[in-house]
Backbone:
């Protein structure tokens, strides 16, 4: 199965980290992605720019509304994503547990299908 | 034509259903990979048994017969569905191809454990874990579970359906967790069992204070878990439930009102349960890898051996609470410790601790904290203060029998306090 891992962090807390700690964090995430790729567990991954860059679009009463910021507010913000290959949820959770974001923020794991696979 | 099942055979099948249906279901879920399909297959297998056994006699290994028949019935079901949904044909073909080897006894016992761990998976909401466990592992009907938890049957049915959908869609595996995850996952199982027990023992709402059926199911589950997975904490939880259950006959008076531990008629306590519980605690403590349930059971065992509140070994209880607070700090346990300190060192010492806890704010909406404070004030003869705190406590209570106890205290105190005050 394919599992999408949504990586959430607190942007302000991340910002406040000393530069070397932040770099170490990014390094360990990169190493993890490499390992996952080597074991053919990583389909794709990416980062999401900070919420300051977010724009939210809604249609209400036939009118388009454009608003700054993310669609939902919360203590943590979406910062990246990975698509993992795992036999089942427990395996996906065991893999995702290595992500540094688990300690720093939160990682949400959900099964996904790609458009071609959807029945 | 099939001969109809004789009453004797019907009874035999009924008792076989009682003894084996959960085992058969657990194995069918593994073989079929789907809860609903397995449940349907289980029913079909028993229907087939009622049709065929009168003619052919009861098979030598009824359980294996039921599993194998259920599996074929499931393949038939998928074939029927394939007329409307072609994707079902593929599943049916795959099931037909993968003929399971005759299961080893150990594998089949593992199926029961798989079922428990899957129903109690932490990826499911807590209320759904409870509902699913009672439905699948304990074989309570949705109606029974709904009425035990005082929710409408459709609500409970939806909770169960959603949980099964999540298991299917999120790919929650049907397996006993790996060693390194076992403790974390066992916690979730123990929590579900204890939640069921507590709902049966201290009903959180409604007029009836206890629902013995739920407690009985929880104890059965606890015993099954100890049988299948002999971990210390599983033993500790079973011990705790048995030791609390032992006090049930003394817990309510003839009007159905709560009798507090210190006022209970201890001759009503079930000594057999106390013996069983105490033996389990001693064993769990001896194994050295115990946790919060075992420690709470040890405290309950100390109460269990005391002939009265005064005769209780309070220093030992305070000591056990100290250990418990180190392993699992919680304001509720601090409160219990404070009450034990009051028994050991006097009301004033206990009140000091309870006041400090309440000042801390963490127990603000927690009724037992108010009630404990009111009680200590009353014992110290500070009736006016006690009355005020009992009244505060009443505003927090939603439970009939609990309210009556508080109201009784308010009435008693009001008659003691001169009305001019």
Residues:
């Amino acid at each position: 199965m394919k599992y999408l891992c949504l990586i959430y962090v607190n942007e302000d807390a991340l910002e406040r980290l000393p530069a070397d700690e932040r770099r170490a964090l990014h390094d360990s995430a990169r190493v993890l992605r490499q390992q996952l790729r080597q074991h053919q567990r990583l389909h794709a991954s990416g980062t999401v720019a900070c919420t300051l860059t977010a724009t939210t679009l809604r249609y209400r009463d036939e009118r388009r509304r454009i608003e700054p910021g993310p669609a939902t507010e919360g203590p943590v913000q979406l910062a990246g994503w990975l698509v993992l290959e795992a036999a089942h949820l427990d395996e996906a959770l065991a893999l995702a547990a290595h992500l540094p974001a688990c300690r720093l923020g939160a990682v949400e794991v959900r099964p996904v299908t790609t458009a071609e696979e959807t029945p | 034509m099939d001969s109809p099942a004789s009453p004797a055979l019907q009874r035999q099948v009924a008792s076989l259903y009682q003894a084996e249906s959960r085992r058969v279901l657990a194995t069918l879920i593994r073989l079929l990979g789907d809860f609903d399909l397995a449940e349907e297959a289980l029913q079909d297998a028993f229907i087939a048994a009622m049709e065929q056994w009168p003619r052919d006699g009861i098979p030598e290994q009824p359980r294996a017969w039921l599993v194998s028949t259920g599996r074929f019935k499931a393949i038939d079901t998928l074939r029927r569905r394939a007329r409307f949904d072609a994707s079902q044909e593929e599943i049916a073909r795959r099931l037909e191809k993968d003929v399971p080897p005759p299961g080893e006894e150990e594998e089949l016992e593992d199926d029961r454990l798989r079922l428990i761990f899957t129903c109690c998976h932490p990826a499911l909401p807590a209320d759904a874990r409870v509902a699913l466990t009672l439905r699948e592992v304990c074989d309570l009907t949705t109606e029974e579970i709904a009425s035990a938890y005082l929710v409408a049957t459709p609500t409970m049915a939806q909770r169960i359906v959603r949980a099964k959908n999540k298991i299917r869609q999120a790919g929650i595996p049907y397996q006993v967790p790996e060693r390194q995850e076992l403790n974390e996952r066992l916690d979730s199982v123990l929590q579900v069992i204890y939640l069921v027990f507590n709902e049966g023992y201290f009903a959180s709402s409604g007029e009836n204070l206890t629902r013995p059926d739920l407690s009985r199911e929880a104890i059965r589950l606890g015993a099954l878990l100890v049988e299948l997975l002999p971990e210390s904490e599983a033993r500790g939880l079973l011990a705790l439930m048995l030791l609390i259950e032992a006090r049930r006959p003394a817990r309510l008076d003839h009007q159905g009102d709560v009798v507090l531990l210190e006022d209970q008629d201890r001759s009503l306590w079930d000594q057999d349960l106390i013996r069983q519980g105490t033996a389990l605690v001693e064993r769990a403590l001896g194994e050295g890898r115990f946790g919060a349930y075992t420690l709470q059971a040890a405290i309950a065992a100390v109460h269990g051996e005391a002939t009265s509140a005064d005769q209780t070994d309070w220093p030992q209880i305070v000591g056990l609470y100290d250990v418990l607070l180190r392993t699992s700090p919680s304001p509720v346990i601090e409160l219990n410790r404070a009450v034990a300190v009051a028994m050991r060192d006097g009301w004033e010492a206990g009140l000091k601790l309870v006041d400090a806890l309440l000042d801390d704010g963490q127990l603000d909406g927690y009724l037992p904290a108010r009630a404990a404070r009111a009680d200590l004030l009353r014992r110290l003869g500070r009736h006016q203060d006690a009355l005020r705190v009992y009244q505060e406590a009443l505003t927090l209570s939603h439970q009939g029998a609990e309210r009556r106890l508080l109201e009784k205290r308010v009435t008693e105190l009001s008659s003691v306090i001169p009305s001019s005050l």
